[in-house]
Amino acid sequence: MTIPNIDLIQVFDFVGTLAFAISGIRLASAKHFDLFGAYVVGVTTAIGGGTMRDIMLGQTPFWMTNPFYLSCSAIALLWVIVFRKLLVRQNNTWFLFDTIGLALFTVTGLEKTLMCTTADGGAYPFWAAIIMGAITGAGGGVLRDVFINEEPLIFRKEIYALACVLGGGVYYICTLFSLPSEMCAIICGISVVVIRLLAVKFKLGLPIIKGEE
Fold it and tell me: CA separation (Å) from 129 to 2, 24, 68, 134, 160?
């Protein structure tokens, strides 16, 4: 019996998809969506950012060639149904799953961009990879919030997408020290989680632009 070769990014992809789908379905359940509506929100949260990334990179959206992501979102729906009472009692579960998904998808988006080539066969610059990582991480959450009629997190004072950008910067710094890509990915993901946790705990945020008074 042979064991399939599963790399770190595949693991990140699975856990990130599950975490983001759970976060979307959890919020949809709080809005009293039916099962199909909750599933749609969960799928959108899980694939939204990656779809934006792939379209911008000129790639076929990843979920259109692999049913794994739709199946994973179905598992997330079943998870929320089974553990609904526990998730409802613990309001911080949404934040936990959302933060995990944010961190893991930032890594996968960044690394996929670095592996892609431009139309002329060249490589994308690192700053573009950082932006794509942020879009992959935060894009699904934006669509989720729109679907459930909430103001998207990235438009609030709370640090969200900026955590993805800073995490991408940490990844770049790691490459300057010639660290293995797996180590860069782990440090990047941890950085996003830590930044997000610190921002919420200490109520850190960017200044608000004020209109005319």
Answer: 34, 25, 24, 9, 18
